[in-house]
Amino acid sequence: MRSLLFWLLLMTPTVTVALPLARPVAMPIGPGPDRMAAGVARMVGSILEFTRWPTERPVVRMCMAGAVAHGDQLDEISLSNGARIATVALAADDAAPAARCDALYLGSLDAAVRQRLIAAVRGNAVLTIAEDDRDCAGGAMFCLLFAPQTLSFQLNIDAVSRSTVRVDPRVLRVAKGGY
Amino acid sequence: MAEPSPTAMPTLRQLLARAHLRLILFAVLMAGLTLTVTGVTVIRGYAARNLTLIAQTVAYTVEPALVFDDVDAARRGIATVAASESVRSVELHGRDGRLIAAWNQPDRGMTGGLSRIVDALFWPSPVRVPVHHGPVVVAEVQVFGDAGGLGRYILSGVATALACLGLTIVATQLLARRLQRDVTGPLAHIADVAHAVRTDRQFDRRVPAAGIQEVDQFARDFNALLDELDEWHAGILNENRILERQATRDPLTGLGNRAMFERELTATMAQADESDTSFAVIYVDVNRFKQVNDSHGHDAGDVMLIVIAARLRMALRPGDMAFRLGGDEFALILAAGSTRTEADQLSGQIGEGMIQPIMLPSGVSIRSSLSIGSALYPQDSVDPRALLRHADAAMYAAKARGDGRN
Fold first, then answer.
1. What are the distances in angstroms from CA B391 to CA B257, B268, B346?
2. Do the beta carbons of residue B129 and residue B52 sit within 8 Å?
3. How buried is residue A7: exposed, middle or buried, by Cβ count under 10 Å (0-12/13-18/19+)?
4. Residue A161 domain-assigned?
C-alpha cells in the first residue's frame, strides 16, 4: 500500500506535465472579412518564430504550392528577429524546390505531386506546412487544423527530425498530440 | 545540623539549581535564536533562488503559448511549473501591465488567513522575470512566495526550543542534586562535627576527608583547630580539678577541709535519710598541741599533724572519711549505716593508735594524745549544727575527763 502511494506521488509530476499535452494550442481566430487568412498568417508567423535555419535567413522565401485557400496575408508577416517573408509561387513540376525555398506552404494538391515535392525538400533546410491535411499523413512537418473559432496545428515529429531546420522543442508541447 | 532559619535564605542546592538554570537557559536560547535566525536566512535565500528559478521556468514555458496567443496554454504551462509548495501565486502580465493569466495555490483552509500574513511578511514583493521572445520582452512573470515552509521551520524550531527547555529544567535539578551531594555533603560533615562539638562537647570528633581540594583543606584546618580546642579543654579541666582540690583539701595533711566536711555531712545525711539508717560524726582534738608548737617549733607541729592525719586515715573503713577542720581539730564521718557501737569502737581504736610516739625532725620523739567525741545521726540530732555541737560537747567532756591519758 505504501509503495503504491510512493509510486503515485512519484508519478504525479509526470502526469501533471503530460496532461496539458492532450490539448493542442488553440489560436483564436479574430473577426474581420479575411479572418481566416489573418489567422493563418499569425499561426505561420508563430511557427516561424520557433524555427531556426542552419544560417540566419533575413528574408524567408516561402514557396506556395497547389491551391492555397488562406495564404493571402503570409507576406505581411514580420518576425521578432526582423526577418521578412517573401512568398513565391511554386510550379507543381518544379525540379529543385529545395534550392529556391526556405519554407514550403502546401495548399490543396494532388497526393502524388505533394509527395514528390516533400520528397524533393527532405533532408534540406526547408520548413513544410500543409494547409489541407487533417490527418497530417502527407509528410509535411506542420499541418494546420481549422476549427470554427480557433486554429491549431499538428506536428509530424518524423518529418521534423529528418529536416535540417530546427524547431524549438517547446513547440511540440503546443502541437496537437504533442509530446 | 541546625535547621535553616525560616527567613527565605536559599540553600546551596537552590543556588546551584538557579545558576545552572540561568546558564542552560542562556545557552539554549542563544543556540535556538542563532539557529533559527541562520536557518531562516539560509532557507529564505534558497527559497528566493527557487522562486527566481520557478519564475524563469514559467517564463520559458509560457513563451510559445504567448507567441501562439493561447492564454489557456499559458495558464496550463504556469500550473505545470508552479505546482510547488513554495509558490503562493503566479501572475503573467502583458507588456502593457494587463493580467494575461494567473495561478493560485489551492486554499489551505483554516491557516489560510494567517499564512497569507506570514507570506506577506516574508515575501513583501513578488519575484519578477520578463518573458523574452528573441530580443523582445513580450510579458512579465510575477511569482509570489509561500512562507508555509519557513513558518513550519520556525514553529518546529520554537517547539524544539521549548522541549529543550523542559529537558533543561529536569537536567538542572539532577545536576544540582549531584553537585549538592558532592559539595554540600562534605560541608555538612563539617557542620555536623562543629555542632556536636559545640552542643555535646565531643572534642574527640574529627571531620573525614572530603575529596575536594578546598573543602579538604578546610577540613584539615578545622580538625587542627579541634585538636587545639581539645588540648585547651583538657587543660581547663585539669586546672579546674587542681583548683577544686585546692578548694576542698587541706594542703598539709591531704585530708578534706571544713568546706568539704560540710558538703560531705549534708550528702551523708541525705544518704542516711534515704536508706533510713544512722551514721556517726566523730570530733578529734589534739591535746597539748600548742605546747608542742611552742617548744618544738611549727615544723614539729606540722609533722605531728601529718602523722596524726595518716593514723586517722589508717583507722578508716571503706566509706568513712577524715577531715582537718583547722588547727589541731579533725573530724570523721563514718559511712551511712554505722552505729554508736561502731563509732565508740573506732574512737577507741584511734585513741590506741596514738600510744606510739611520734618522731619529730629534730630527732626528739614525743607522745601525743587525742580528745574524741562522737554524735549519732539521727538519734542525737537531725540538725547538722546541733549534731556537730553534740559531738563537740562530747569531745570537750572527754578532754575534761582526761581521756587519752594526758
1. 18, 16, 14
2. yes
3. exposed
4. yes
The catalytic site residues of B sit at 328
Residue B180 within a domain: no
Q: Does B83 touch chain A (CB under 8 A)?
A: yes
Across the interface, do B73 and A49 touch by the CB < 8 Å criterion?
no
* Domain boundaries, position A125: 24-174
Strands A59-65 and A84-89: parallel
Task: Tell me how close the Cα of B82 comes to any Cα of chain A, in angstroms.
Answer: 11
pLDDT tens sequence across B287-321: 888 888 888 888 888 888 898 888 888 888 888 88
Q: Is A27 an interface residue toward B (CB < 8 Å)?
A: yes
Q: Are residues B20 and B155 in the same domain?
A: yes
φ/ψ of residue B228, rounded to 5: -60, -40
pLDDT tens for A16-63 read: 444 434 456 677 777 777 788 888 998 999 999 899 999 989 999 999
Shared-domain flag, residues B31 and B150:
yes
* Domain boundary residue, one of B127, B142, B165: B165
Question: What is the CATH classification number for the domain harbouring A69?
Answer: 3.40.50
Tell me the per-residue pLDDT of A75-134, one tens digit each, with 9 for 90 and over.
Answer: 888 888 888 999 999 887 887 888 889 999 999 988 889 889 999 998 889 999 999 888
Residues of chain A in contact with residue B73, where contact means CB-CB under 8 angstroms, are 20, 23, 25-26, 174
B222 assigned to some structural domain? no
Range of the domain at B394: 258-405
In the 8-state DSSP scheme, what is residue A109?
-
- Give a yes or no: residue B272 inside a domain: yes
Looking at the 3D structure of chain B, how many domains does it have? 2
Which tens digits make up the pLDDT trace of B176-215?
Answer: 888 878 877 888 888 888 888 888 888 888 888 877 888 8
Q: Show which of B165, B193, B227 is a domain's final residue.
A: B165
Both B142 and B273 in one domain: the answer is no
- Domain of residue B95, CATH code: 3.30.450
Q: Give the pLDDT score at B4.
A: 46
Chain A positions in Cβ-Cβ contact with residue B133 (cut-off 8 Å): 49, 80
Interchain contact, A174 vs B136, CB within 8 Å: no
**Contact A75/B at CB under 8 A:** no
Same domain, B395 and B269: yes
B358-359 vs B321-326, strand pairing mode = unpaired
- Any B CB within 8 A of A49 CB: yes
Q: For residue B313, give the CATH number of its domain.
A: 3.30.70.270
